[in-house]
């Protein structure tokens, strides 16, 4: 028997009271076990979509199912399957992390003894155990974000939704968070991630949807999407650049500063002509790297296309 | 016991426990000030002013105002507990912890109501114990005393919940207690019998629901009342049902909480 999709939304719509149409008939399917990226610019509708799935926002139309369970008709059963890490800090700042986690488990009907065991487990895994009995308001920004992940894990959800969990978090903590989330994904939990750090999405996620102005503009596998990128950009560290850059067929050269060049070209374009022309122009190349990040380039293009179509 | 019911019971216990822990954690704000205020009422109105007043319904003034002062504490603390607690949960957004959980609306509402009743009734007991320093009490009808205190506490916890749901800023949870609740309490027969009032004030007073609660409690404690006890129960149950239904409706629709 095939398992129902982890998330199946059909023609989901949301119009706020002020007339803003945040979602214009979004349909999306996320398969069990996936690590799924939901990307989009600010105000695209990501948080509204997540809000509806987690029952914080009332939909204006459409349906959403979690592992085949309707969030509208069987809300209680559906919510047992979800863990949410929201964008904004939303725990009681006067409580202790341990109590926050134990109480969260209680809301899911998990008996206190088991809740205490899980709180210890997840606070330790997220390296918060030494802060478990301190007031939550005394935690750093990164700790508060990890606490929200620990809290979301208390009901051991089948679908974990992370809404920009690494915003404002330093690299070391971000990496430890991803190590944890990757671990639970490998253990079978489906993960949906929204983030503004596109290299995170590229590294972690297998499938991706890009939402803009309340509609899905792309929904595919990460590899398939990246394969669509027909242009590559290289960054070249050079000696002192001349005033005028050479002109090379099929390659667009851009000066970033007096010692750095960007070279944009079609994928598979031969690099020999680039080096030959640079050599002839007296430009010495000392090092070269691919411009990060490929997904970012695609993202900008897709969103820009949407804007141009709208303007037209 | 069904699986769902067992889950809901755990969830209910969790909210009540959290609410009670909050009351205990900030005991210097939740328990001490109301006790001091009541003591001052006993000293000023009971001892200083009351010693110059005639008996009412056969009781000296100090004894006569005890039920009213107990109810005043029950009402203001039940109301105040839930407005500050639930609005605080909205303000800090941790109400979302409950909204994303599988808990049905009745569990959330019941949890907060029980929490508010714990504080309201605890203050009622404290004020009654303080009153024993000033007068002697013999509870005439213990069951009526207890049920009236519980129903009144529930009604004002529910009213406070509705206030907290609609409140958008801290001012919104201070306006109703100051401009509606306090006047209704003072005009609700706490310090006098409405039999002492002439018309039209005697009739107008009967539009005040607190009058029925204070008198029902006075009947339970002292055995005297300006109101028929059956009518008083009908009023309390009516408000409990209407406000309870409205509270559930608000939670179910997510008004003031969900977008």
UniProtKB/TrEMBL annotation, chain A:
InterPro entries from the UniProt entry: AAA+_ATPase (IPR003593), ABC_transporter-like_ATP-bd (IPR003439), ABC_transporter-like_CS (IPR017871), ABC_transporter_ATP-binding (IPR050763), P-loop_NTPase (IPR027417)
Keyword field contains ATP-binding: yes
Residue span, ABC transporter domain: 7-238
GO MF annotations in UniProt: ATP binding; ATP hydrolysis activity
Record-linked SMART domains: AAA
Entry keyword set: ATP-binding, Nucleotide-binding, Transport
PANTHER family referenced in this protein's UniProt entry, alphabetically: ABC TRANSPORTER ATP-BINDING PROTEIN, ABC-TYPE MULTIDRUG TRANSPORT SYSTEM, ATPASE COMPONENT
Protein name per Swiss-Prot or TrEMBL: ABC transporter ATP-binding protein
From TrEMBL, chain B:
Limits of the ABC transmembrane type-2 domain: 25-254
Membrane topology qualifier: Multi-pass membrane protein
Transmembrane segments: 31-49, 61-82, 103-131, 143-166, 173-194, 227-251
Compartmental location: Cell inner membrane; Membrane
Keywords recorded for this protein, A-Z: Cell membrane, Membrane, Transmembrane, Transmembrane helix, Transport
GO molecular function: ABC-type transporter activity
A single GO cellular-component term on record: ATP-binding cassette (ABC) transporter complex
Top-level taxon of the source organism: Bacteria
Classification via Pfam families: ABC2_membrane
UniProt similarity note: Belongs to the ABC-2 integral membrane protein family.
Protein name: Transport permease protein
Originating organism: Oleiagrimonas citrea
């Amino acid at each position: 028997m095939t398992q129902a999709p982890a998330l199946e939304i059909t023609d989901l719509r949301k119009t706020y009271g002020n007339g803003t149409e945040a979602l214009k008939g979004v349909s999306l399917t996320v398969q069990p076990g996936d690590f799924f990226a939901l990307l989009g610019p600010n105000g695209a509708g990501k948080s509204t979509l997540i809000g509806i799935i987690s029952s914080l926002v009332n939909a204006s139309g459409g349906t959403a199912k979690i592992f085949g369970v309707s969030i509208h008709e069987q809300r209680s059963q559906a919510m047992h399957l979800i863990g949410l890490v929201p964008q904004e800090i939303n725990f009681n700042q006067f409580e202790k992390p341990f109590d926050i986690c134990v109480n969260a488990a209680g809301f899911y009907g998990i008996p206190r003894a088991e809740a205490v065991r899980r709180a210890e487990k997840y606070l330790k895994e997220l390296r918060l155990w030494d802060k478990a009995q301190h007031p939550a308001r005394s935690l750093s920004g990164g700790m508060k974000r990890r606490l929200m992940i620990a809290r979301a894990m208390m009901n051991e959800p089948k679908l974990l939704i992370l809404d920009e969990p690494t915003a404002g978090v330093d690299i070391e903590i971000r990496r430890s968070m991803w190590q944890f989330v990757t671990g639970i994904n490998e253990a079978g939990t489906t993960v949906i991630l929204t983030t503004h750090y596109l290299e995170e999405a590229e590294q972690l996620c297998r499938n991706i949807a890009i939402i803009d102005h309340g509609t899905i503009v792309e929904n595919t596998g990460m590899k398939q999407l990246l394969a669509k990128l027909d242009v590559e950009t290289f960054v070249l560290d050079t000696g002192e650049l001349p005033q005028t850059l050479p002109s090379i067929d099929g390659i667009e050269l851009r000066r970033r500063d007096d010692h750095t060049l960007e070279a944009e070209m079609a994928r598979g374009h031969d690099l020999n002509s680039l080096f030959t022309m640079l050599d002839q122009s007296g430009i010495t190349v000392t090092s070269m790297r691919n411009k990060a990040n490929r997904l970012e380039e695609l993202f900008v293009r897709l969103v820009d296309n949407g804007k141009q179509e709208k303007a037209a | 016991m069904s699986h769902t019911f067992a889950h809901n019971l755990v969830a209910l216990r969790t909210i009540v426990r959290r609410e009670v822990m909050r009351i205990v954690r900030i005991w210097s704000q939740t328990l001490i000030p109301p006790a001091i205020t009541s003591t001052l009422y006993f000293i000023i109105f009971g001892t200083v002013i009351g010693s110059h007043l005639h008996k009412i319904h056969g009781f000296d003034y100090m004894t006569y105002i005890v039920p009213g002062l107990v109810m005043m504490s029950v009402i203001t603390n039940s109301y105040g507990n839930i407005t500050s607690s639930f609005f605080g949960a909205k303000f800090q957004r941790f109400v979302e912890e409950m909204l994303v959980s599988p808990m049905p609306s009745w569990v959330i509402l019941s949890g907060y109501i029980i929490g508010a009743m714990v504080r309201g009734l605890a203050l009622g007991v404290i004020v009654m114990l303080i009153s024993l320093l000033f007068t002697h009490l013999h509870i005439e009808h213990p069951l009526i005393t207890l049920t009236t205190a519980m129903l009144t506490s529930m009604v004002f916890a529910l009213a406070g919940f509705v206030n907290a749901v609609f409140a958008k800023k801290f001012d919104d949870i201070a306006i109703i207690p100051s401009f509606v609740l306090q006047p209704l309490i003072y005009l609700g027969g706490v310090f006098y019998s409405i039999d002492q009032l002439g018309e039209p004030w005697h009739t107008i007073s009967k539009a005040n629901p607190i009058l029925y609660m204070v008198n029902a409690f006075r009947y339970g404690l002292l055995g005297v009342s300006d109101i028929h006890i059956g009518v008083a129960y009908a009023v309390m149950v009516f408000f409990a049902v209407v406000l309870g239904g409205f509270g559930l409706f608000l939670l179910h629709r997510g008004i003031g909480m969900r977008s």
